[in-house]
Amino acid sequence: MRQQILVDMDGVLADVYAQLIIFEHRDSGIKLNIENMYGKTELEAFPSFEKHVRSKGFFRTAPLIPGSIEGLKYLNEKYNVLIVSSATEFPQSLNEKEEWLSEHFPFITWEQMIFCGRKDSIRGNIMIDDHPKNLSTFDGERYLFAQPHNMCVPDRNYHRVSGWQDIIRLL
Amino acid sequence: MRQQILVDMDGVLADVYAQLIIFEHRDSGIKLNIENMYGKTELEAFPSFEKHVRSKGFFRTAPLIPGSIEGLKYLNEKYNVLIVSSATEFPQSLNEKEEWLSEHFPFITWEQMIFCGRKDSIRGNIMIDDHPKNLSTFDGERYLFAQPHNMCVPDRNYHRVSGWQDIIRLL
């Protein structure tokens, strides 16, 4: 039987930092620099975080993380893939996330999508996520997808991956 | 630690049969009779099932199953409740279901909501659902919520409940 792998959306498939930088620039004219965000939470890095992620179109038009299409295709041929995304905190994101996923990853079926609040009741063998809070309650293999907010998180409990090329190499 | 209970939406909280009868009457003038539907699947009972459930507003304006508000409030005080709803097959239902749930059950937080395709990867101790296909892969206690389509399903693998008064009595 294939192993089941839980793949996060924001910060793993969708480039939320790039989108936050675009929205900040659009709204205030300020060009934020990603190097200044290492080790800060998303809320610390983006004072208007809440406003942006609740804006219409934020999730629908998010740029892709480089290599995510090929990478997810690779996983989907080898594993039982479930896309598990925190979405109910920002309810308008639900339809936007489903549409975005179906547009960019048409090989992912509706049966492979889970939109939730917390991820600690979803079963799997492997989890890829950029948030330690999601990985910490997971009892399988844990892959921490590098993002500025998790740069200072110690790696002892996770396999840290710097991008999709790492995932393909390791999995 | 509290036991975790997975509660289905359609057919347990939302009265999908009542809504299908309303939509059928609105569209074709035909008044369908629920007694003629016993033992038939929803697709057999409602020839326009697919059209109705994909209609704007179908889930947003669904009537409540009698006793569901008091019943869910009762469970929510005693158990760790997760609302687990099949939604991604009909993507427009995602936002409608979240809004409907938040309107009628404001004591359910965003952290307690899961919208998915299949339910076989959601962990819990108890599951309440009207579809045997969801209960059959669940490894905890299984409660089959009576609906016309499951009238002929044998009860040997499930506790059959005829409504929310039964749930409150048994759980």
TrEMBL record, chains A, B:
Active-site annotation: D8 (nucleophile), D10 (proton donor)
Single GO MF descriptor: 5'-nucleotidase activity
A GO biological-process term: pyrimidine deoxyribonucleotide catabolic process
Gene3D superfamilies: Deoxyribonucleotidase, domain 2, HAD superfamily/HAD-like
Pfam families referenced in this protein's UniProt entry, alphabetically: NT5C (PF06941)
Family as reported in the entry's similarity comment: Belongs to the 5'(3')-deoxyribonucleotidase family.
PANTHER family linked: 5'(3')-DEOXYRIBONUCLEOTIDASE
UniProt name for this protein: Uncharacterized protein
